[in-house]
């Protein structure tokens, strides 16, 4: 069974083609600058070099057609015909309270995703364009939607409600949803697998630290609390996002700096975080390099960032009355030994003991980086959201 996984953004579309007999990736790629002049298609077959084509691609249906051309291309392709694609899985950012798990695409599913446009105005409309484009080009091929929020739908009310008038929750669904759910679900399952223990018996804190960052408390195999909120702005400090702050700062700044809602939104989402404090970059590689070169602002940005990760780990250990496993994943979490060391350094009171040599080793494999006598097992687990999307698509379409 071959499954095409799609992550459609407003002007880009990423794809991976899986062969589910062994879960191997046959090809992957992306279409960038959709609707702009000179769109770029990058296609990477698993066994041949990458190809790049510059073209005019005005909308998502043409982008999907271009992807299918690539997948069946006589030189760069990996399929003899598009009819070899058995199902398509889509990443969808917001599933609201309706989608507690992945779902087959039908009229009702599409209606619900549309109803959620308000909660994720930048993402859900783009995902919908991807879904309708596939419908138009691959008629009759079943599609599945996998939501970033679904894993967190198990959170209890005490975790997901905000202490503001209940009418706002009832009228406008203002609550914590959490994001990166597919990643937190994948890495926690993988960790339990590697440890040879049932996930249901572990208390885990999963730290997905990439451009966006979130921490999740996983209790009895379910999300118990997570740091991102109604939107992906809350929680940890990120590359360009502020994370937690006093909400009173928003009206105060608007008043003092004469900012509009759009401007303040942009400030918190695009001009804050590592970028704002370092005055240099939102990229953790550049921050750490500058810090080691003696840049004081880069050091401050790094220290604020790691301090906030540490506080969330402590909070979630308290929330679950313990922690058995601490997971690091995503771009920064998987690659930055210095970040992991800084975070774990002050957590010895929880029984966390990092093996500095194991922590410093570079590898793409999931692995333990704590000492044998550490009460908490610290692990690096490379995330693979696409694989989880492919697996859910496989499960749901096999039954269909
Ligand atoms: P992601 O959003 O998961 O793709 O993560 C992207 C981020 O990972 C980049 O912005 C970098 O800041 C970070 N990153 C990647 N490699 C490294 C590294 N070796 N050290 C520190 N940060 C890294």
From TrEMBL:
<feature type="site" description="Transition state stabilizer">
    <location>
        <position position="180"/>
    </location>
</feature>
<feature type="binding site">
    <location>
        <position position="385"/>
    </location>
    <ligand>
        <name>Mg(2+)</name>
    </ligand>
</feature>
<dbReference type="InterPro" id="IPR004372">
    <property type="entry name" value="Ac/propionate_kinase"/>
</dbReference>
<dbReference type="GO" id="GO:0006085">
    <property type="term" value="P:acetyl-CoA biosynthetic process"/>
</dbReference>
<dbReference type="GO" id="GO:0008776">
    <property type="term" value="F:acetate kinase activity"/>
</dbReference>
<feature type="binding site">
    <location>
        <position position="14"/>
    </location>
    <ligand>
        <name>ATP</name>
    </ligand>
</feature>
<feature type="binding site">
    <location>
        <begin position="208"/>
        <end position="212"/>
    </location>
    <ligand>
        <name>ATP</name>
    </ligand>
</feature>
<dbReference type="Pfam" id="PF00871">
    <property type="entry name" value="Acetate_kinase"/>
</dbReference>
<dbReference type="GO" id="GO:0000287">
    <property type="term" value="F:magnesium ion binding"/>
</dbReference>
<keyword id="KW-0479">Metal-binding</keyword>
<feature type="binding site">
    <location>
        <begin position="331"/>
        <end position="335"/>
    </location>
    <ligand>
        <name>ATP</name>
    </ligand>
</feature>
<dbReference type="GO" id="GO:0005524">
    <property type="term" value="F:ATP binding"/>
</dbReference>
<keyword id="KW-0547">Nucleotide-binding</keyword>
<dbReference type="InterPro" id="IPR043129">
    <property type="entry name" value="ATPase_NBD"/>
</dbReference>
<protein>
    <recommendedName>
        <fullName>Acetate kinase</fullName>
        <ecNumber>2.7.2.1</ecNumber>
    </recommendedName>
</protein>
<comment type="function">
    <text>Catalyzes the formation of acetyl phosphate from acetate and ATP. Can also catalyze the reverse reaction.</text>
</comment>
<feature type="binding site">
    <location>
        <position position="7"/>
    </location>
    <ligand>
        <name>Mg(2+)</name>
    </ligand>
</feature>
<keyword id="KW-0460">Magnesium</keyword>
<comment type="subunit">
    <text>Homodimer.</text>
</comment>
<keyword id="KW-0963">Cytoplasm</keyword>
<dbReference type="GO" id="GO:0006083">
    <property type="term" value="P:acetate metabolic process"/>
</dbReference>
<dbReference type="InterPro" id="IPR000890">
    <property type="entry name" value="Aliphatic_acid_kin_short-chain"/>
</dbReference>
<dbReference type="InterPro" id="IPR023865">
    <property type="entry name" value="Aliphatic_acid_kinase_CS"/>
</dbReference>
<comment type="pathway">
    <text>Metabolic intermediate biosynthesis; acetyl-CoA biosynthesis; acetyl-CoA from acetate: step 1/2.</text>
</comment>
<keyword id="KW-0808">Transferase</keyword>
<feature type="site" description="Transition state stabilizer">
    <location>
        <position position="241"/>
    </location>
</feature>
<comment type="similarity">
    <text>Belongs to the acetokinase family.</text>
</comment>
<feature type="binding site">
    <location>
        <position position="91"/>
    </location>
    <ligand>
        <name>substrate</name>
    </ligand>
</feature>
<keyword id="KW-0067">ATP-binding</keyword>
<keyword id="KW-0418">Kinase</keyword>
<feature type="binding site">
    <location>
        <begin position="283"/>
        <end position="285"/>
    </location>
    <ligand>
        <name>ATP</name>
    </ligand>
</feature>
<feature type="active site" description="Proton donor/acceptor">
    <location>
        <position position="148"/>
    </location>
</feature>
<dbReference type="GO" id="GO:0005737">
    <property type="term" value="C:cytoplasm"/>
</dbReference>
